[in-house]
Design brief:
Number of strands of chain A: 4
Distance between the termini of chain B: 32 Å
Radius of gyration of chain A: 13 Å
Largest sheet of chain B: 6 strands, antiparallel
CATH class of the largest domain in chain B: Alpha Beta
Strand content of chain A: 15-25%
CATH architecture of the largest domain in chain B: 4-Layer Sandwich
Number of helices of chain B: 10
Order of helices and strands of chain B: EEEHHEEEEEEEHHHEEHEHEEEHHEHE
Largest sheet of chain A: 4 strands, mixed
CATH topology of chain A: Glutaredoxin
Radius of gyration of chain B: 24 Å
CATH architecture of chain A: 3-Layer(aba) Sandwich
Largest interface: A-B, 25 and 32 residues
Number of domains of chain A: 1
Number of domains of chain B: 2
Shape of chain A: globular
CATH superfamily of the largest domain in chain B: PPM-type phosphatase domain
Helix content of chain A: 25-40%
CATH topology of the largest domain in chain B: Phosphatase 2c, domain 1
Structural class of chain B: alpha+beta
Distance between the termini of chain A: 10 Å
Strand content of chain B: 25-35%
Number of helices of chain A: 3
Oligomer: heterodimer
Strand order of the largest sheet of chain B: 2-3-4-5-9-8
């Protein structure tokens, strides 16, 4: 079984102004049983805002984070914690 | 004076209990390349002294910059100062240095402690001539005596100007019953410069001298304490790379500028940092220790002295530079660190990528994201006008 879930949080301009800075505190929202499995990293820019589909507003899905490589759009503390928890359950199962 | 840069900086603190300093240090760069700096100390302390000193410093600097003869300048100043209602005299001291591009320096002193000229670790004593002038109406008795001196600066020279708050610091205490004193201050400056391994910048020297004087006063300054320093030094260069190039083909060119730069290097921008990391094969790691709610965290990348987010950080640097107040917040975020690097450099080169990030153009974004070029222009203008730095901006 894998022992680590890698969470990468975008620290770029668009993500930051859309509330991305609070995502670095996501560990506080996690259940204690998973907290130890999670590693948090930042990245200067995931470059996802620019790549959003043309029918969407540019940057409209920021802030972004990756949970084991899978993007979470419009992330906030709750949705990111939920995505991490889901990933943990998936790994256990 | 080839390949030397004149760094001019000052530091000051107000008398305890006064909200405004009664000393003023001002510098202006003239169109013909001359630099004029004035330190003025107004009678008393607080706002009234501040007004006297500001008037004196501004008039003296502008007149000298306009090439008006020194005698006329001194007469103007003395005639225009308002008379203090309590003491019935109009008075503000000043020390003025006028530096020509070739390094020829003229110094005029009026009642401030004598300036220090430090050359190759030695205190020099320039010859001074006296100019006597009758004081203005309502002025104190006797002639005003101006001291003039002139010399050609050499690379590595430092001129240190300070107000009497420095020389009189500690007055009345057991250790310094008559104050720190001219000679002791000069020795302190010489020893401080000698003991610093790297060339002590004008900014650090001014700060250290003021701090030492404040310490002598028992951390409760009894007068305004001000120090201004001019230092002819080998220029410290800083490169600020910000924004992705207009086309991908130019990514390599931008990285080459970065890699071959002789000096310190900063990258301001997430995408820009990603490009440089991709081209150089370096790994970026975001520093999660200095998290700040307003400014995104900085990162590290081999070869770069600092990596920050782009537009928010630069906009904060611009507003910190433009405000006259020191930022009171004790926080030290990425913008503060970038500002420190800029103030610690003499020649700052900006390489600005001109590709637009569409994600920033969304009108529903909660803050106004300015155009990168404008912010860089604001920073460059403030660095030139307020801190006498040399800046270059190029676009890619």
């Amino acid at each position: 079984m894998r022992t680590e879930i890698k969470v990468v949080i975008c620290a770029g301009t668009a993500c930051h102004v859309m509330g991305g800075s609070e995502l670095f505190l996501v560990k506080d929202r996690l259940d204690e049983s998973i907290r130890g499995l999670v590693s948090i990293e930042g990245i200067p820019c995931l470059d996802l805002c620019r790549r959003s589909a043309p029918d969407r507003r540019p940057g409209g899905s920021a802030p972004y984070a990756l949970v084991d490589g899978v993007p979470v759009e419009r992330a906030d503390l709750d949705s990111l914690a939920a995505a991490i928890t889901a990933r943990a359950i998936e790994l256990e199962g | 004076m080839k390949d030397t840069f004149l760094e001019i900086s000052h530091h000051q603190t107000s008398k305890l209990g006064q909200s405004a300093p009664g000393d003023v240090f001002q510098s202006i760069k003239c169109d013909d390349g001359r630099v004029v700096s004035v330190l003025s100390d107004g009678l008393g302390s607080g706002i009234k002294a501040g007004v006297l000193a500001t008037l004196t410093a501004t008039m003296a600097a502008r007149c000298v910059a306009a090439d008006i003869p020194l005698r006329r300048v001194a007469e103007f100043v003395m005639r225009s100062l308002p008379v203090c209602s309590e003491r019935k005299i109009s008075y503000a001291t000043f020390s003025l240095i006028d530096v020509a591009p070739g390094g020829r320096v003229r110094v005029v002193e009026y009642d401030n402690p004598p300036y220090v000229l430090l050359r190759a670790g030695t205190l020099m004593e320039p010859l001074k001539s006296e100019l006597r002038l009758p004081r203005g109406k309502g002025g104190a008795k006797g002639d005003a005596v101006l001291r003039l001196s002139s010399f050609v600066a050499k690379p590595g020279d430092r001129i240190v100007l300070y107000s009497d708050g420095v020389t009189q610091s500690g007055m009345g205490t057991k250790s310094y019953p008559l104050g720190w004193g001219d000679v002791a201050v000069q020795d302190y400056v010489r020893d401080l410069v000698a003991s610093s391994t790297e060339g002590l910048s004008a900014r650090e020297l001014a700060k250290s001298l003021v701090r030492e004087a404040v310490t002598k006063d028992g951390w409760a300054p009894k007068d305004d304490i001000t120090c201004g320093v001019a230092y002819w030094r080998h220029p410290r260069r800083l490169l600020v790379l910000t924004g992705p190039p207009v086309s991908r083909e130019r990514d390599k060119e931008m990285t080459r500028v970065f890699a071959s730069f002789d000096g310190r290097r900063v990258i301001a921008g997430g995408t820009t940092a990603n490009i440089v990391a991709r081209e150089t094969g370096g790994k970026i790691s975001v520093d999660l220790k200095d998290l700040d709610p307003e400014i995104p965290p900085s990162s590290s990348l081999p070869g770069a002295d600092l990596v920050t987010e782009g537009i928010l950080t630069l906009a904060r640097v611009a507003s910190l530079l433009e405000s006259d107040q020191d930022d009171p917040s004790p926080r030290r975020n990425a913008a503060h660190r970038l500002l420190e690097l800029m103030l610690d450099s003499d020649v700052i080169q900006f390489v600005v990528g001109t590709r637009i990030n569409e994600a920033h153009q969304d009108p529903t974004m909660p803050v106004e994201l300015e155009i990168r070029r404008n912010v860089v222009k604001r920073i460059a203008a403030a660095l030139e006008a307020k801190h006498l730095k040399e800046t270059r901006v190029s676009y890619i």
